[in-house]
Design brief:
It contains five helices and no strands. The radius of gyration is 22 Å and the shape is elongated. The protein is mostly helical and about 150 residues long.
Length: about 150
């Protein structure tokens, strides 16, 4: 009974994560379109701001990486989100020299982690949870039918 409840909760959490990822992806696509339209309008009016364009574009990239992280559940996907988020901060914000140095050190550390601590298996997502739960459910039903 306890195992069934845990499996149900895990499956529910996984489905909710996918729903959140889909929602974020839809909003990100809308933001892409709006950013493109706004950029063209500002360009035509001569009021285009490269800083604002880069900030919006990097936000879109971070969102896309975040969606990949929610779907893949791999250490490499997590490091990619961190890498893009830090890179976005470095490119967009005009921080102090110390903040920039810390950001560059953080990016270097992420590259070191990706090179030396992550293996190829860390890039491969775990087997599909729904397929796993379905196989277990079918096996359990077959076992029950054999006992009857």
């Amino acid at each position: 009974m306890k195992g069934t409840v845990i499996k149900f909760l895990l499956k529910t959490a996984w489905v909710l994560e996918l729903a959140i990822a889909l929602f974020i992806l839809v909003i990100t696509v809308v933001q892409m379109v709006l950013t493109g339209m706004d950029s063209l309008d500002y360009l035509a009016l001569g009021q285009f701001s490269l800083d604002e364009f880069l900030a919006n574009t990097m936000n879109i990239v971070v969102c896309l990486e975040f969606v990949k992280m929610l779907i893949l559940h791999t250490p490499r996907a997590v490091t990619d989100v961190l890498l893009f988020a830090i890179a976005r901060q470095l490119v967009v914000s005009h921080s102090s020299s110390m903040d920039t140095l810390l950001g560059v050190a953080a990016v270097a550390l992420i590259f070191i982690i990706k090179k030396f601590l992550l293996s190829r298996e860390d890039s491969v997502p775990p087997k599909d949870m729904l397929a796993k739960f379905s196989q277990e459910f079918i096996a359990k039903k077959e076992e029950e039918s054999h006992h009857e």
